[in-house]
Amino acid sequence: MENLSIPTLRVLYKHYVNWVSAHPERTTDLEASIKWISYFLAGRINNSTLLSELIYSMSNFMMLFNDQIILSTAKPNSVTINNKGKKKIFSSENIKRFITTVDYVEVFIEISAKKLWGTKGRWIIIVLLQTVKCMARLYLLHVHKLHILESPPIQPLDRKSVGLKCNDALDGVITLPSGRTLRKLDHAPPMNRRTWEAPPRADKLNGGIPGKALSDRHIVAETMYIMKPIVHLGSMCVFGEKSWKPWLISITIEYISLQRLKSLKNLTPQQRLVLSKRSLNLAMYIVRSPFFENYSEKHIRLFLNWFVNSVPLVGPLMRPFLEYMKQWQETYFYLWSV
User: Fold this and answer.
1) Which residues of the chain have pLDDT under 50?
2) What is the Cα–Cα distance from 170 to 167, expressed in whole angstroms?
3) Is there a contact between 170 and 176 (Cβ–Cβ < 8 Å)?
4) What residues are paired with 183 via a beta bridge?
5) pTM for this model (two decimals)
């Protein structure tokens, strides 16, 4: 360890940055391999849930870190600075990174808290995490005027688009109101270098096009959506974990918020995509408690058992899922996460 001086670590870090920026596809394969390791570990060794979630969280951290390296390499002048030349602590990018980091690690923290302090400690950690995330999202909404954000706010980077050095190419690209892009004829690459794909959109590289200003009514709708986890946790405290009322309150808030935001006109393509994802997310309520225990669990098990027994070579992959389905449902399909 004494030989690993600070200059040596800086050289190693520089080599790593150069390798990631030069080989984004290999980096993606490495991250995917680490995630698959977390899947195969589940249920096969002691404390497998904790170890599996730790590896999965590390792969997400690695992906976020590598995305920042690739993006900074492609756009070295994209860092926002204030008048003193220092990065703003409460800038929108920093807050989005913080929320994304919490999203990636919250399940691991919850599982660790339950093992260390029991069920009561787990619930305390859940309330703290969701309160911090809620405050951060409200800050982005009301202070930075960032509306209809994805979850997590920083999505995985489209590395193929960035890898094409699209900053120079965007000068020869026309973006239509629909979001579709067209390349100018005089900016077409040589025939042997053409990919015959549409040029990348600006929002793919810049982390999203700023949305149109929302009216007070729509800001209230987005605030309702952000506050949903806190309202759900509060209703669970009042009515109990097995009650239907928290489930009904949560789905009602999400549906009303979604319908009001969908009434907006002149939404950006990215905002329409986010609202589409939220619409699909309503279907996840069939695997959330108490609907899962009372209705959908038995039907899902019947279908999976039939699938395992009918399709060759599927059994080794699906049987661990059947054995741990209830545990995974309790761990991942909760209602207090946005």
Assistant:
1) 1, 78-86, 165-170, 205-209
2) 5
3) no
4) 173
5) 0.81
